[in-house]
Specification:
Shape of chain B: elongated
Helix content of chain A: 55-70%
Largest interface: A-B, 136 and 92 residues
Number of domains of chain B: 1
Distance between the termini of chain A: 67 Å
Number of strands of chain A: 4
Strand content of chain B: under 5%
Order of helices and strands of chain B: HHHH
Largest sheet of chain A: 2 strands, antiparallel
Structural class of chain B: mainly alpha
Shape of chain A: elongated
Distance between the termini of chain B: 51 Å
Oligomer: heterodimer
Largest sheet of chain B: none
Helix content of chain B: 55-70%
Radius of gyration of chain A: 36 Å
Chain lengths: 994, 110
């Protein structure tokens, strides 16, 4: 239970960020940090159990049909990482309360908390799927935290996402393959499976996939690109995610899978070589940086490389050394990152070329940084010294013979020189030398450091100091963690950590490193500036951009094969294929005499009448050049089809068809008033080709219907619905109960489509600038100036009757007064009786929509029906209500959208009626939005309507197009959404680069 | 059988109209195609039974297949949504010719 509590408290923290940030602003960091510590405290019993050579497990069924369990398991490894995530997290959040700008900072705290819970889930997961999910969540949280830092973070966050998700795919593949091969989703069982011993090929493949995942996350060469990029994020984010947590997730993964892979050659070779290469280039690039934060970033890359190489050695001692360095690194690096934040806060810059002498002005910060850097450089008596000594010792055990071991040892020693050099650079260039002192204005004071900022930045570093002297207390945790990284049958490791091991090779190496380092320090005035240029003229970001653009270009050229802006190509191909299929297929059926006998009584006399009407109307529709004539023909077809549907015994469908037909024609008329009066030119291939294709398509459709329908009895399912439907639902209208109960998920999808159509209309219209959307009437192709009619004098009745609309609208308005309430009542009745008689949400909503249409038509001049934001809100409400009833059904019956029945004073009630209400609102919202947008003439433009649908009443159309990049196309033209909305000043005309 | 002919006529008209240049004609074509498809689905329920599917009133013997009816009802409303969306696109620039891209003021890489 202890594990569950830790996870639950971390999860509650995520939700708690909303009220806490609202109440406390940036000081929400305090209670959140307290919650982290509470989560850590909740973990304590489990930690004690683990230290006494036990493991704690907890699980509950998750997706029973797939055999997935939400299982947690605490071992030595999970314990170390849980405490790193929670305790360092708490310190960083306390630091944030002083670092962040005053204000709510909700996204910061929210994503930090989300990150922490996924990190805790990751390290405690004992289920492979859970492990993968948490892994991806950490990637996402990291992405959001970088992305929230504004424009600088935009491209960087995308690169981070790209790289970490690439690794995520690797992990997904590895996890899936493991589940399939070992037959269990439990991590500990899968790792103990015999397949790792019996199938070397499989083992190597999975090892490579895990390595890919871990390398992307832990920024190993060549995936190290994203980490320096990620420094766009706020300093607390860097201190926590990019020093202590996210990047350690990759390390954790390697350690977690170590029991299976620690003796696989490809694992050892790749980890050691890549780790050392990363360590070296990270150190080298760190020396080249002048921005302290970038320097820290590369130093993190370098230190991670060191840890990866040590894991690669794979022996008991090496794994213990790796975990010790993880602890040491988490302490000193998070502290150093926060110290950079302190410097930045005080001096307003992090560039060593511009910093004044800080060591005298900020002595405490200076000495703390010295301690942190000493730990990083491996100077005694720091914790980092102990871990570095251990790593050096561990390298002797590198597999592949004494030559390889000595090479690894030498590699670590050389990279340690680089580490020492950049540590010296941080201390001396950052604080002591004051390379920017000469240019520093005399009167410019340093900002005083708030106590929380300084204290919590120093805390992790200062704690590391006494820890080095009593490093023996880490024996048990490190030993337990190392045990978790070895197969279960291995001997229990006893690392015997100590500051002083006597005079040995490692100590001498350390001394040599320090001697070289001191030499560098003495020659620093020459040495550091000389390194401050990039080795390559391009960086990783450029490489990714090139890869990305190339992929996009290839994709585009592939898409060019099938895409076309006009629909002809798609339509023609589809119907040719249909014709070929049907004509050929029916031919075979008839030739082979496979057709069943036609059912009797398929024909009704009314069918013939309908056919005649439809045939004539379709002919007129196709031949008409006048748009108005075409609409008349179309509505004739619609009416005839309605009759046909009623004749087929489908009253619900018929009513729906009738109402939809009426609304559609109204909407078409709204559009037609803004389009040319005639249709214009024929298609490029000529009408003959179109006619030919039409005949072939029509013939195929007719033949298919003839051959494939009407040749059997009623289906079993039809009989079942007719007989059992009323019993199951106690509703007599089977069609309605199918819609809202049996197949409610279909209907749910449908109402979402309706809602999305409304949203999509607004979205499409607002991608087009006003002047292109509604060009002035004179620009229209067939513009005819209004005729000069000889009228009586202005003010006379005759004049008004011709020139003004309101007089003509009066009869309609009077009519609306009577019919609107009537329609509302009809709509309500249809809605209520839908379960038993023809009616229901759709039909009632269409009747309700016709009120909207009437009100719209009855006004003398164009204006919106209802408040501007109402339609989209109705849509949203409709979808939410539908989802709500769905979830309600899930709680009540463990099935989404399952209706619940009940009685209130003898009236039968079911939640499917509430669902129907959702349908009603979505339909109504769509129709209102359509009338508002399509009907915009005269007063407001279409674009203004679209903007108002989202933003509420504004005084004119915005001059942007939604979705376009600000910087690319809008070179500093004011009037972009936000300022416009805040001040309600119409924007300047423009928006083109001309 | 009459319904297949009706469906054939509707489909032919639909295809003819959808091959035209004007967006509005294409919308009309789509409307015809929707009618054709709806009738096709209904006729899949075998049109020999034409009673209304309200069992307690019309009885089970005569009642038509309710499942295709439910499908068609859904389809009609979706067709409305599609039509409305296409109408919104037809009106851009007060010209519905699909051969040329409407001017939008956006600059984009092609």
């Amino acid at each position: 239970m202890s594990l569950l509590w830790t996870l639950v408290i971390s999860a509650v923290t995520v939700v708690a960020t909303f009220p806490l940030t609202k109440l406390l602003g940036r000081h929400a960091g305090w209670p959140i940090a307290a919650l982290y510590l509470a989560a850590a405290a909740a973990y304590w019993p489990a930690a004690r159990e683990v230290m006494h050579h036990g493991t704690v497990e907890w699980s509950m069924p998750w997706v029973p049909t797939l055999g997935l369990e939400l299982s947690l398991r605490a071992d030595g490894l999970g314990t170390v990482f849980t405490f790193i995530a929670l305790v360092i997290g708490a310190v960083v959040l306390a630091y944030s309360t002083a670092y962040l700008k005053p204000g709510r900072n909700l996204t910061f705290y929210f994503y930090m908390a989300m990150f922490t819970v996924s990190m805790v889930g990751l390290v405690l997961a004992d289920d492979l799927i859970l492990l993968f999910l948490c892994w991806e969540l950490t990637s996402l949280a990291s992405f959001f935290l970088i992305a929230r830092s504004g424009y600088a973070g935009e491209a960087a966050s995308m690169r981070t996402l790209l790289i970490t998700f690439l690794g995520g795919l690797g992990l997904l593949a590895a996890v899936t393959a493991m589940v399939v091969r070992t037959g269990t989703t439990t991590l500990s069982e899968a790792l103990a499976h015999e397949v790792w011993d019996t199938s070397p090929g499989f083992t190597a493949t999975i090892a490579l996939l895990v390595i890919l995942a871990a390398f992307t996350k832990s920024a190993q060469f060549p995936f190290h690109v994203w980490l320096p990029d990620a420094m766009a994020a706020a300093t607390p984010v860097s201190a926590y995610l990019h020093a202590a947590a996210v990047v350690k997730a990759g390390i954790f993964l390697l350690m977690r899978f170590s029991p299976a892979f620690h003796d696989v050659p490809v694992w050892n070779v790749l980890l050691i070589s890549t780790g050392l290469v990363t360590c070296a280039i990270g150190g080298w690039f760190a020396l080249q940086k002048t921005d302290l934060k970038k320097l820290m970033a590369y130093s993190t890359v370098s230190q991670l490389g060191l840890i990866v190489a040590t894991i690669g050695v794979g022996t008991e001692y090496a794994l213990a050394a790796a975990i010790l360095h993880v602890i040491a690194h988490a302490l000193f690096k998070s502290g150093l990152f926060m110290m950079v934040g302190v410097v930045d806060h005080a001096a307003g810059t992090r560039d060593v070329r511009r910093l004044p002498v800080l060591s005298s002005a900020m002595p405490i910060a200076f000495w703390v940084t010295v301690l942190g850097c000493a730990s990083m450089a491996g100077v005694p008596p720091m914790l980092g010294f102990v871990s570095k000594e251990s790593i050096l010792t561990a390298m002797h055990e590198a597999p592949g013979g004494p030559v390889a071991a000595w090479a690894a040892f030498l590699g670590v020693a050389l990279t340690a020189v680089l580490t020492f050099a950049y540590c010296a650079k941080i201390v001396f260039n950052g604080f002591f030398d004051g390379r920017g002192q000469a240019k520093w204005p005399e009167d410019r004071p340093l900002h005083t450091t708030p106590w929380a900022l300084g204290t919590f930045a120093a805390l992790p570093i200062v704690v590391g100091l006494p820890l080095a002297f009593v490093v023996g207390i880490l024996d048990t945790p490190v030993g337990r963690a190392a045990a978790a990284m070895l197969p279960a049958d291995a001997e229990e490791p006893h690392p015997h950590l100590a500051l002083w091991h006597g005079i040995n090779l490692e100590l001498l190496t350390s001394l040599a490193i320090i001697v070289v380092g001191v030499f560098v320090i003495l020659r620093r005035r020459f040495f550091f500036p000389a390194r401050e240029h990039d080795t390559f003229s391009f960086d990783g970001a450029d490489v990714i951009r090139v890869i990305n653009d190339t992929a996009a270009d290839v994709g585009k050229s592939l898409a060019m094969l099938v895409r076309a802006d006009n629909p002809t190509r798609h339509v023609a191909v589809q119907f040719l294929a249909l014709g070929a299929l049907v004509l050929g297929g029916v031919g075979v059926l008839v030739a082979g005499d496979h057709l069943l006998p036609v059912q009797e009584g398929l024909i009704s006399p009314i069918d013939i009448v309908v056919l005649v009407i439809i045939a004539i109307a379709v002919a007129v529709l196709c031949r008409a050049n006048s748009r108005l004539a075409a609409v008349v023909a179309l509505s004739t077809v619609g009416a005839a089809v309605t009759v046909q549907i009623f004749a087929l015994g489908a009253p619900d469908v018929g009513m729906t068809q009738l109402l939809v037909e009426a609304l559609t024609v109204l909407m078409i008329m709204l559009v037609l008033q803004r389009l040319p009066q005639v249709f214009g030119r024929a298609p490029r291939w000529g009408n003959k080709a179109a006619l030919l294709l039409a005949v072939v398509g029509g013939l195929s459709a007719g033949l298919a219907t003839w051959a494939l329908t009407g040749r059997r009895d009623r289906s079993e399912i039809a009989i079942w619905y007719l007989e059992e439907g009323p019993v199951e639902t106690s509703g007599d209208n089977v069609v309605n109960t199918i819609l809202v109960e049996f197949r409610a998920l279909d209907t749910f999808g449908e109402l979402t489509v309706l809602g999305m159509a409304a949203v999509a209309m607004v979205a499409i219209v607002s991608t087009v600038r006003d002047k292109y959307l509604d060009p002035p009437p004179e620009a229209d192709r067939n513009y005819v100036p209004p005729p000069e009619v000889p009228l009586r004098e202005r003010g006379s009745t005759a004049y008004r009757a011709v020139t003004e609309a309101w007089g003509n609208a009066v009869p309609m308005q009077l009519l609306v007064r009577v019919t609107a309430p009537l329609l509302a009542i009809i709509s309500a009745i249809l809605f209520l009786r839908g379960h038993n008689s023809p009616g229901g949400g759709f039909i009632a909503a269409l009747v309700g929509s016709s009120i909207v249409a009437l009100i719209y038509l009855a006004t003398s001049r164009d204006r919106m029906v209802g408040p501007p934001r109402l339609p989209l809100r109705l849509v949203a409400l409709g979808v939410l209500i539908a989802v709500g009833t769905g979830i309600w059904g899930m709680i009540g019956h463990v099935s989404f959208l399952e209706p619940l029945h009940g009685y209130l004073f003898d009236i039968h009630l079911t939640t499917s009626m509430v669902f129907d209400l959702g349908v009603y609102l979505a339909v109504l919202g769509l129709v209102m939005e359509a009338f508002n947008l399509l009907g915009a003439t005269g007063g407001e433009s279409t674009r203004e309507r679209a903007d108002e649908a989202v933003e509420g009443e504004i005084s004119g159309p915005m001059d942007t197009s939604r979705g376009e990049r600000y910087a690319e196309t809008r070179l500093g033209i004011p009037g972009r959404g936000s300022t416009y909305l805040q001040q309600d000043l119409p924007p300047r005309k423009g928006g083109d680069r001309e | 059988m009459i319904l297949p002919i009706t469906i054939g006529v509707l489909t032919a008209g639909a295809i003819y109209l959808m091959l035209q240049r004007g967006m509005v004609r294409i919308i009309f074509g789509l409307a015809l195609l929707a009618h054709a498809a709806n009738l096709l689905i209904l006729s899949a329920g075998v049109t020999a039974w034409r009673g209304e599917p309200l069992p307690s009133r019309t009885g089970v013997e005569d009642a038509g297949d309710p499942l295709p009816q439910a499908f068609v009802l859904t389809a009609i409303v979706i067709a409305l949504a599609v039509t409305v969306l296409m109408l919104a696109m037809a009106v851009i620039g007060h010209n519905d010719d699909t051969k040329r891209m409407p001017e939008t003021g956006e600059t984009h890489r092609r």
